[in-house]
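Structure first, sequence second, as always.
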């Protein structure tokens, strides 16, 4: 601000000095140069300040600072508004000065001034010529009467006085050029006697010419001429000149002199004017630009403050505030309204955060409760889209329901579609039903319940709960069959012994007495005895299934139990190739050796029956078929130990495979359906698992999975540590 005021003052001082106005006067060359230098210095300093400010604005623009774009636009606008009038005024001023100086120094003006001086000079020259002639005539008259003047010197003064009056002169005298003595003079010639002619006038007069002189006041014309008849005598005469003409002459000469001087300095004045006007214009321009930049900065600073605060609010910082302006203009109203808005938004956000925290706490509590529930729970919206599943639901359905949120549950689990449709049709009723679902290779029975969430005038959603009741149904069927088996065994066991004893007694007593057909009698009694034995064994199986004894758990070498079981079966069936893949080190598990041996025997017997059934079917079809193969493997994994039996028999059915472990479910014509049921019961008592799958050699693959893995085995059978495996391949005889 100080620099701007100094610049404006310097410009005004330069203008006043250039025009020669008081108190600077007309002699202003050095002061004008000093002011021009000061203007140049101020111009440079002002330019540096403005350039620095513009660079700062450009830097803010490059950094993308808020309000920089508007700042630059305002600066450009103010600069254009300031530059345009300055350029226009500069052009017109230069043209005006050029045309004005052309008119000032035109040929007409120059001719008029020169003619005026010529007229005045002609008038003065005319007086000079007249006085020259008068001086010569008076000197000639004195020369003619010089003899008489020598006898009467006083007559010379009277003669000069007559000549002066006769010729219209006002003064005249004759004096000795060497001594300065006055020889004769007219009346009123005291001024001539006091004002001695200069030496150049004497020199010229001595040559015989007339020396024309002007008085010091330029109001008289005088002439000096030598009087030849009188030795060393000089005639000095004078006549007054009209002062108006003299003043006009002086003024004309001064005007002509100044005109010529100005015309000679014309280009200099143009250059000075251009420099002065250029410096002043640049100073004013920079001052205008600076004021524009400051004004733009004030506007953009206010707007940038609002922009920055708005950006913070946009990014989520509702505590952002802009500086409230005290002005009563639109910016002040806008800043106050903005702060009021952000304050209300912050208050509302705080309330919403509090509400969301409460909702989040309730949601976490609900999720915690749901995650601890073994049943699957799925929340649906009014369109049946999944929006809130628990972890148990994903595990039961073997699907990541969290990733499937927003999709219809009827498409994710098509088996539930009829129940979902029924719930949507009757939202005021609880829909319940059982569905069969195949998850991988395992079939499950789910008990599904769908209840609607009633709202005011609408149904905002549904809650689907389901649980796996497969094991429950299986346990119920097992319990029912166990009760049936116990009753059958009780009712059938009592008459079997008398029947067998009676048949044996009949054979012993009457075999010798029967002569007609003893073979038939023997065949019938043997059949009765054999069938009673089969029924007895069936009754024993019923009794075993109905009253399975509790296992006696102890540490047993599963490897040795496997070898014993395989040895018995390969001895009984030498036509089948047995491959035994066992680890080198003992594998100890906690089990009942008798029950595990029974389970392994059942699995091997099932494999043998499956192979024999395949061979019979192939023989009936006319095919030779492959020889029977059974592969027994003992694998120690990280968390469990698996004993698997694989065969190349006819295999297990794809459909209903999960029902094979239920009592009295069999695929053999003569099977009771209790073998796998007993095996499963044994594995359940051992906290293990019975796994039914397809074998790697073409038939079935049934595995017994015991809990506990590598921590109960010295080595892994499939380890890469180089531990040797014991592999036995037993071929038929």
């Amino acid at each position: 601000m100080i620099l701007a005021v100094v610049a404006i003052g310097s410009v005004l001082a330069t203008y006043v000095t250039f025009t020669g106005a008081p108190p600077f006067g007309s002699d202003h060359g050095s002061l004008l140069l000093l002011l021009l230098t000061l203007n140049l210095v101020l111009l440079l300093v002002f330019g540096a300040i403005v350039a620095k400010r513009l660079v700062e604005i450009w830097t803010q623009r490059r950094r993308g600072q808020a309000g920089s774009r508007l700042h630059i636009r305002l600066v450009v606008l103010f600069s254009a508004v300031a530059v345009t009038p300055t350029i226009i005024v500069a052009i017109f001023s230069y043209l005006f000065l050029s045309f004005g100086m052309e008119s000032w120094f035109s040929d007409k003006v120059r001719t008029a001034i020169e003619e005026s001086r010529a007229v005045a000079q002609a008038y003065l020259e005319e007086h000079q010529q007249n006085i020259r002639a008068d001086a010569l005539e008076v000197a000639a008259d004195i020369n003619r009467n010089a003899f008489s003047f020598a006898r009467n010197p006083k007559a010379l003064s009277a003669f000069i006085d007559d000549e002066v009056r006769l010729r219209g002169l006002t003064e005249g005298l004759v004096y000795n050029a060497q001594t300065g003595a006055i020889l004769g003079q007219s009346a009123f010639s005291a001024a001539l006697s006091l004002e001695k002619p200069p030496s150049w006038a004497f020199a010229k007069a001595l040559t015989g010419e007339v020396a024309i002189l002007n008085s010091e006041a330029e109001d008289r014309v005088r002439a000096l001429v030598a009087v030849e008849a009188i030795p060393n005598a000089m005639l000095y005469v004078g006549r007054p000149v009209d002062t108006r003409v003299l003043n006009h002459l002086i003024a004309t000469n001064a005007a002509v002199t100044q005109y010529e001087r100005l015309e000679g300095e014309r280009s200099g004045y143009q250059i000075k004017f251009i420099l002065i006007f250029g410096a002043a214009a640049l100073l004013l321009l920079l001052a205008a630009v600076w004021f524009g930049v400051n004004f733009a900065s004030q506007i953009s600073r206010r707007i940038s403050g609002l922009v920055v605060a708005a950006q913070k609010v946009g990014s989520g910082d509702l505590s952002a505030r802009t500086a409230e302006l005290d002005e009563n203009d639109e910016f002040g109203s806008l800043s106050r309204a903005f702060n009021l808005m952000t304050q209300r938004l912050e208050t509302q956000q705080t309330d919403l955060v509090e509400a969301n925290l409460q909702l989040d706490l309730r949601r976490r509590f609900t999720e915690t409760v749901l995650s601890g529930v073994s049943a699957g729970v799925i929340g649906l919206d009014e369109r049946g889209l999944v929006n809130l599943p628990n972890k148990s639901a994903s595990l039961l359905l073997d699907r990541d329901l969290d990733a499937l949120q927003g999709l219809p549950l009827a498409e994710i689990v098509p088996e539930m579609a009829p129940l979902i449709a029924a719930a949507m049709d009757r939202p005021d009723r609880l829909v319940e039903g059982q569905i069969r679902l195949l998850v991988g290779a395992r079939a499950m029975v789910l008990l599904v319940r769908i209840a609607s969430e009633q709202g005011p005038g609408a149904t905002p959603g549904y809650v689907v709960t389901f649980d796996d009741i497969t094991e429950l149904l299986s346990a119920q069927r097992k319990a029912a069959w166990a009760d049936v088996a116990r009753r059958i065994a009780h009712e059938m066991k009592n008459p079997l012994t008398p029947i067998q004893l009676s048949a044996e007694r009949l054979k012993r007593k009457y075999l010798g007495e029967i002569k007609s057909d003893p073979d038939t009698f023997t065949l019938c009694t043997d059949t009765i005895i054999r069938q009673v034995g089969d029924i007895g064994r069936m009754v024993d199986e019923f009794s075993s299934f109905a009253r399975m004894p509790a296992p006696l758990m102890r540490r047993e070498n599963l490897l040795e139990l496997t070898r014993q079981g395989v040895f018995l079966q390969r001895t009984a069936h030498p036509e089948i190739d047995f491959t035994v893949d066992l680890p080198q080190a003992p594998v100890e598990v906690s089990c009942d050796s008798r029950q595990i041996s029974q389970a392994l025997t059942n699995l091997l017997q099932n494999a043998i029956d499956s192979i024999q059934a395949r061979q019979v079917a192939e023989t009936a079809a006319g095919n030779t078929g492959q020889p029977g193969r059974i592969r027994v493997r003992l694998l120690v994994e990280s968390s469990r130990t698996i004993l698997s039996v694989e065969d190349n028999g006819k295999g297990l059915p794809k459909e209903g495979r999960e029902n094979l472990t239920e009592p009295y479910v069999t695929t053999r014509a003569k099977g009771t359906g209790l073998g796998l049921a007993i095996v499963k019961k044994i594995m359940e008592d051992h906290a293990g698992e019975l796994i039914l799958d397809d074998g790697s050699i073409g038939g079935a693959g049934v595995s017994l999975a015991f809990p506990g893995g590598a921590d109960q085995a010295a080595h892994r059978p499939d380890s890469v540590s180089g531990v040797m495996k014991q592999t036995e391949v037993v071929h038929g005889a």
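Margin note: The chain has 19 helices and 18 strands.
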